[in-house]
Amino acid sequence: MSGSFKAAVNGTWQRWRFQWSADDAPVFRWYYRFFYRPKAGSIQSFLDAYSKQTKNFRVIQVGANDGITHDLIHKFIKRDQWQGVLLEPQLAVFARLQQLYHKNRQITPLRAAIGEQDGEASLYKIAFSQARWATGLASFNKEVILQAFASGYVENKALAEGVDIPAAETDRITAESIPVISPATLIEQYHLDHFHLLQIDTEGFDLEVIRLFAAQTTLPDAVIFENAHLDDEQRETARKILDEIGLQCRDFGKDTLAFRPVLQPLVPGA
């Protein structure tokens, strides 16, 4: 089976799945309510147990992208009617996030990135594709995208998608001006006096997001961040900051879960 055929089949499946979720189709909700079982020992098994035992679950998601592709929490938001704010700064991707949750009034999609102060910033992203692999690379740090080219990741993904990589860097990478909101404004504006989970996926900016939220008086009971784009020193710094606000850490592959001790019985291997 060729790579292009696999990509076509996967693309069709992803479109169907997206539409079923956006429509709140019974088949979608029933599957996750009655048949879904997370893999034993996975971070999803923690989320599954935590979500089931918690009423009025509230989340802040930073870097939501389209809200469904490679998304750890989407199924639980839909299944258990989570509340909260999902932040995605990229304009085209944000439109899909809005579509996905247009029937879920307890969820607020917000076109913004997190920053120290309210304002605007430049977000670097792939210029020649709007596929999920490309939009998922968007970062405040241009070096993250350059490294994705250097490693061959972009070449492999572009080949599978069937798109050509432009020769000029200016045609490969573009910058989008995006709105920025501070954690303090976010928490106040959306009345998040308490929230259970801070979910972060910001392509290398995760440590800064942790720093910014750790400085607030309103803190989550659990944090999930992507450690893959952090070096050893940054990972250790993230752990230290989380420890200082009373959270323990456990790695699950490219993701790290930080949690309050009261949640330890729900954490695989803790």
Descriptive notes:
The chain contains 12 helices and 10 strands. With 270 residues, the protein is an alpha/beta fold. The longest helix is centred in the N-terminal third of the chain and has 20 residues, at 3-22. Helix 2 (26-35) packs across helix 4 (74-80) and helix 11 runs parallel beside helix 12 (232-244). The protein has helices at residues 3-22, 26-35, 43-53, 74-80, 91-100, 132-135, 142-150, 153-161, 169-172, 183-189, 206-214, 232-244; strands spanning 58-62, 83-87, 107-110, 113-114, 119-126, 173-181, 197-200, 222-226, 248-252, 255-259. The protein is globular, with a radius of gyration of 18 Å. It has one domain (3-120, 178-266): Rossmann fold. The protein is 42% helix and 19% strand. The mean pLDDT is 95.
Topology record:
Blueprint: H1 3-22, H2 26-35, H3 43-53, E1 58-62, H4 74-80, E2 83-87, H5 91-100, E3 107-110, E4 113-114, E5 119-126, H6 132-135, H7 142-150, H8 153-161, H9 169-172, E6 173-181, H10 183-189, E7 197-200, H11 206-214, E8 222-226, H12 232-244, E9 248-252, E10 255-259
Parallel strand pairs: 1-2, 1-7, 2-3, 4-6, 7-8
Antiparallel strand pairs: 5-6, 8-10, 9-10
Helix pairs in contact: 2-4, 11-12
